């Protein structure tokens, strides 16, 4: 056997083994090998494929973890329109739909399926191989998110059929446990919470870095074969069975019947069971099962005539408020939280909800002992709607904020510029864990694998007392922590070492200084070039920089002058953490130019467009004035466009903008 044949045999054997192991682990919950053995084989396959890319399988398991970073998403025109559905909210409307259908097709049967709370996509297979995936978009044109879809384990890269082509419509969703874990992590970092699974799935799938999507643990249910009639199928339920046989993950909760009373019973049954489902649903879709009857019924401008979506009403429950506890955030802000008798809402047991601030509590006159009404916003985030005053016990008293921090006992401070009440303790333990977690978060130092739970373990064990101590950790100390080990310790140390090379702007943001967000950190780092130069600057010198105001400058100066923070910076410097900024700029064609963005651009998010402008030396402002150089306007541009036209400011569209940024000879 020659060398090429031997290498091909190695790649083929490794690929087949890893696909089998993944199938056993993810789909059958019956792993055959340890994670360590699996990772070792995966690394071996990666190395062989990197050296011999022509021999890699198109459905190689390495395609799940390639970590592609895109500059944008390409548009994809759907060969088969991905229509939306008409929503109904009562059983009367369901029976009216049945009447309309039966007038034309008395023998019509329906397929009723659970309506997954996610993001609709179309998967394209050629000769059984997954070649492309796109979002629904406007139904006619979507976005190519193939690389992100490859990271979803439930999407087969190779089907158990060679019928070609196949266009499979599915709903990408985030399981409830994955969603709750993600929101818990974001809450710990004081990042905005996702309102519901659909927002989480959509936000994850539209990440330009597929590694982020891979970490979000998305899943999918396939529910339609778009080109089923062309392939000879006669009914929708027949295509569901075929998709299941091909290896697609198909929802098991559906009912085929021509009797709308049976469909109603199915809806009520699922409504009672929805709390036990591992995924979020917001209704039941009722479709005519016959594909030929569908063709004859056709569609309106907005939706098909052969289907409707019954939406479940939001679930609200009354419960007894047991306590109001205060949570201390990373910046010291105290947030009151309601603790109440546990209730089941939208699939999970909840016993806590935020009360936002003392003004919210006072407005609704919420008192410990009250019977409160609780609902999950978007079926996910618990919220207190109000109080049943008729059931208020005697002896309740209005809630009052304490004058000292409940964690460290330091005095509290009422910020005159906002409603927030803050702890003044610089070493408050409650702030410390979140401060370090923020330091390690992706927008800051991006220390992969260092979540809030590991930070808390490190603090409890006494291994760290500040974020600077992270860079002095030893492998054996990390490995000894609960749920860690040698491999995890090695990965964390590698991530810490890598983070030392980050730009100064990331470090500035990681410090968590009040009023110094990502934008201000980038501006300051680009202007001064080093932390040493920033430290030498006065607040007056800082405010000379455009977009840096007096509040930001004073906050930064105060933070830098704090002896504890100066010691913290020195510890980071001694550990080898970079404290300079290198501005990579293609050229400075936009130097001195200010852009304002408004509306929706076809191919760029606002952040992407702003990054391009800044890469050419320009600046992005949020308001239009006579000093504005250009207004970059997309679809549904609002008042900023009107003001630009009034002031005579040049308005450009995406095409004109792309001509401006195209490389000049």
Features:
OB fold (Dihydrolipoamide Acetyltransferase, E2P), globular, 37% helix, 665 residues, D-amino Acid Aminotransferase, Chain A, domain 1, Helix Hairpins, five-stranded antiparallel sheet, 24 helices, 22 strands, 6 domains, alpha+beta
Query: Which stretches are low in confidence, meaning pLDDT under 50 for 5 or more residues running?
Result: 66-70
Assess the beta-strand content as a share of residues: 15-25%
Largest sheet properties: 5 strands, mixed
| DSSP strand tally | 22
Sheet with most strands: strand arrangement: 2-11-10-3-9
Can you tell me the CATH architecture of the largest domain?
2-Layer Sandwich
What is the radius of gyration computed over CA atoms, rounded to a whole number of angstroms? Answer: 28 Å
Structural class, from helix and strand content?
A: alpha+beta
Overall tally of domains: 6
Name of the top-level CATH class of the largest domain? Alpha Beta
| CATH fold call of the largest domain | D-amino Acid Aminotransferase, Chain A, domain 1
Q: Report the end-to-end length measured between terminal Cα atoms.
A: 53 Å
CATH superfamily of the largest domain: DNA ligase/mRNA capping enzyme
Q: What is the general shape?
A: globular
Q: Provide mean pLDDT, rounded.
A: 86
**What is the overall number of helices?**
24
């Amino acid at each position: 056997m020659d060398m090429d044949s031997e290498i091909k045999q190695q790649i083929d054997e490794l690929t087949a083994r890893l696909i089998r192991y993944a199938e056993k682990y993810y789909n059958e919950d019956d792993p055959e090998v340890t994670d360590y053995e699996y990772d070792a084989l995966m690394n071996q396959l990666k190395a062989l494929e990197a050296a011999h890319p022509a021999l890699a399988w198109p459905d190689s398991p390495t395609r799940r973890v390639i970590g592609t970073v895109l500059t944008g998403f390409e548009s994809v025109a759907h060969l088969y329109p991905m229509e939306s559905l008409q929503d109904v909210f009562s059983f009367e409307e369901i029976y009216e739909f049945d009447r309309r259908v039966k007038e034309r097709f008395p023998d019509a049967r329906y397929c009723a399926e659970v309506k997954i709370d996610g993001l609709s996509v179309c998967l394209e297979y050629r000769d059984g191989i997954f070649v492309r995936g796109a979002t629904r978009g406007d139904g006619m044109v979507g976005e190519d998110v193939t690389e992100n879809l490859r990271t979803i384990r439930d999407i087969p890269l190779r089907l158990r059929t060679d019928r070609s082509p196949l266009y499979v419509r599915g709903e990408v969703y985030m399981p409830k446990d994955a969603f709750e874990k993600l929101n818990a992590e974001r809450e710990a970092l004081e990042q905005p919470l996702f309102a519901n699974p659909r927002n989480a799935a959509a936000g994850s799938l539209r990440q330009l870095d597929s590694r982020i999507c891979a970490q979000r643990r998305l899943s999918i249910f396939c529910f339609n074969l778009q080109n089923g009639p062309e392939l000879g199928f006669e009914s929708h339920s027949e295509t569901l069975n075929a998709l299941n046989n091909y290896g697609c993950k198909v929802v098991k909760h559906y009912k085929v019947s021509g009797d709308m009373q049976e469909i109603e019973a199915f809806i009520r049954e699922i409504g009672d069971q929805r709390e036990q489902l591992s995924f979020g649903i917001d209704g039941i879709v009722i479709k005519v099962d016959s594909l030929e009857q569908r063709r004859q019924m056709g569609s309106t401008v907005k939706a098909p005539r052969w289907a409707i979506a019954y939406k479940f009403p939001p679930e609200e429950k009354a419960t007894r408020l047991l306590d109001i506890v205060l949570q201390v955030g990373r910046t010291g802000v105290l947030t009151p939280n309601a603790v109440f008798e546990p209730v089941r809402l939208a699939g999970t047991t909840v016993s806590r909800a935020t009360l936002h601030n003392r003004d919210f509590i006072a407005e609704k006159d919420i008192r410990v002992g009250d019977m409160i009404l609780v609902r999950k916003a978007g079926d996910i985030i618990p919220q207190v709607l109000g109080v049943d005053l008729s059931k208020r016990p005697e002896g309740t008293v209005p809630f009052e904020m304490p004058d000292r921090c409940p964690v460290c006992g330091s005095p509290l401070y009422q910020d005159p510029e906002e409603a927030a009440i803050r702890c003044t303790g610089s070493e408050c333990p409650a702030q410390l864990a979140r401060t370090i977690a923020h330091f390690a978060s992706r927008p800051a130092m991006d220390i992969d694998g260092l979540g809030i739970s590991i930070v808390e373990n490190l603090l409890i064990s006494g291994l760290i007392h500040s974020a600077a101590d992270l860079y002095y950790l030893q492998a054996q100390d990390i490995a000894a922590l609960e749920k860690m080990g040698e491999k995890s310790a090695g990965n964390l140390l590698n991530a810490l070492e890598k983070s030392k090379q980050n730009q100064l702007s990331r470090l500035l943001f990681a410090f968590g200084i009040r009023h110094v967000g990502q934008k201000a950190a980038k501006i300051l780092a680009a202007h001064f070039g080093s932390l040493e130069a920033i430290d030498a600057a006065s607040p007056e010198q800082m405010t000379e920089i455009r977009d840096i105001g007096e509040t930001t400058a004073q906050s930064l100066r105060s933070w830098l002058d704090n002896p504890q923070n100066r010691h913290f910076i020195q510890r980071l410097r001694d550990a080898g953490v970079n404290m300079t900024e290198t501005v990579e700029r293609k050229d400075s064609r936009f130097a001195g130019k200010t852009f304002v963005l408004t509306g929706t651009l076809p191919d760029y998010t606002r952040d992407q467009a702003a990054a391009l402008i800044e890469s050419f030396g320009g600046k992005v402002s949020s308001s239009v004035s006579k000093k504005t150089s250009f207004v970059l306007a997309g679809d549904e541009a609002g008042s900023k466009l009107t003001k630009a036209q009034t002031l005579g400011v040049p308005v450009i569209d995406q095409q004109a903008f792309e001509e401006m940024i195209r490389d000049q000879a």
